[in-house]
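Changelog-adjacent note: as of this version, every example in the card shows the full chain rather than a window. The one below runs 238 residues end to end.
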Amino acid sequence: MKIKCILIDDEPLAIKVLRNYFSNFSDFEIIGTFYNALEALEFINNNNVDAIFLDINMPMMTGFELISLIENKTNIIITTAFREFAAESYDLEVLDYLVKPIPLPRFIKCINKISAEFNLKNNIKIENHRIDPHIFIKVDKKMVKITIDEILFIEGMKEYIKVVTIDKTYITHKSLTSLSEELPLDRFARIHKSYTIAIDKVKFIEGNRIQILSYTIPIGRNYCKYVKNRILEQSTVQ
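Full-length structure tokens:
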């Protein structure tokens, strides 16, 4: 099941940039591109659209005016060169706000957010059908999809991080803090300045160390109490 998106911007170059970015993500499908909001309105109200990438300053109708006329609830992502509209956009409950020129890492973060919303929506609608949440990271110029349930831990290494999964290890140019923020808070915990772990993958705690499969991971001195409480809370819930 693909995530259906449309792009609305009066600048052809802006649409071209987004199209190039989307070409890396097989789970997403662009089902329409529009150069003015009025042209897009009828399509949005008559089709199933999961996410709308929307510029603000456009002829005939602004992006904000379009949002007020959309009948079907969908995820709105603002794409604009102006930072000053951010507060107004969040009053309209947009999912994300991207400032042009949009860096690829920031776009990936947005894509992960859309995926999470899409999975949540479909898990509610489709009983007994599990859709695995996932993230995308850039590895050797490719966007790699990693299912969150497969992640064991993430290790920070100065300008890079190492994502260790059940079957494979990936290295990407990203900060540990940035990737940790993309993971579900109820399933992952920062246990050290250099480590974030999957709580449900912990085999045991011994002193200031955690065991996950064959990996022994240190707990930072300032994280000790927090980590033990989080792991005990998780085991109680389960």
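Structural remarks: The first helix runs from residue 12 to 22.
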